[in-house]
Design goal:
about 190 residues
Amino acid sequence: MNAVAKVDEKAARLEMEAPAQPVAEAPAQPVAETPAQPAPVSVTPTPQPAPVAPKKKRRAGRFLLMVALPAALLAGGAYVWVTGGRYQETENANLQQAKVSIASDTAGRIVKVGIADNQLVKQGDVLFAVDPESYRIALAQADAAVATARLNVEQLRAAYSQAMAQEKSDTSEVAYAQSQYDRAADLAQKGI
């Protein structure tokens, strides 16, 4: 209770305890001595007691506004922060993806599209047809490279066979030259 409320309360008690002053009443019938002029009547208003405010309700309202409401907001915010948005929730451990990126292993010009927008597809469905001409050209180049490699192998085999024959010929020439040397050395020793 503050000082202003105490003063107001004391003033109200004093006014209630003070005796009421007699009020001059007007005679019921006009007296002959007085002409037709009525006597002045003074009416004193009775003071009303000051209304006393319920203090408990005001304190409860203050408590609600100052402590309970911020605490409730803080608790609600903490709950939303802890449970909302940071973790992905799953039901029955099944995840379904709304969109799937599609990429091809090969690059090329697309000549046919086998599906329409927003159509459901299954594994194995043909989605796009790529122009095969560039792959035919690449296959022909690879076949030509294989043929060239085979020709090189045949040429190397022929060169190997020729080198083996040359070695055999050179070996026989070395043997003939050795025999000629031995014969000439024998003749030289004999003095012929």
